[in-house]
Amino acid sequence: MNRQNHHELIVSGIHLELTPSLKTFVQEKMERLFRHEENIIRIRVELESDPKEAVATRFKAKGHIAIHGPDMNAAVEADECHKAVALLVDKLDRMLARRHQLKRAKRHQATSVNLDTEFPQAV
Asked: Tell me: the pLDDT tens digits for 45-56?
């Protein structure tokens, strides 16, 4: 737990009361992302409830990851708030895994350098 002190998690509710149990649920789920990627600076989670929407899309969860490099954004909809958080964490985890895979592939990619100048002969 000492390693995660420099990470920041912001949870906000839009038209939704954030209960302590919901906050701890989001915190526990987001710890998975902090364990996978140590370059995460901040994760902001917005939970939104719209009672006028259809039942299947009543709860929305939006996530924004501030990381070294381009930031990452994701949004999911579900019929239950806890399910929306779980789906959001899964989606962000897949995005981080893909980003890591692309960085590894780029790092191991062979590059060629074309030198047009002539080097002096060694004596």
From this structure: 999 998 888 888
Residue 120, pLDDT > 80, answer no
| pLDDT, tens only, 83-103 | 999 999 999 999 999 988 887
**In Å, what is the CA distance from 73 to each residue of 42, 53, 83, 93, 122?**
12, 22, 18, 12, 56
Gyration radius of the chain's alpha carbons? 21
CA nearest 75: which of 35, 65, 66? 65
Under 8 Å between Cβ of 34 and 3: no
Q: Nearest 5 degrees, angle CA 89-CA 74-CA 94?
A: 50
For each of the domains in the chain, give its residue range(s) and CATH number, in order of start: 2-100 (3.30.160.100)
Cα-Cα-Cα-Cα dihedral sign, residues 81, 82, 83, 86: positive
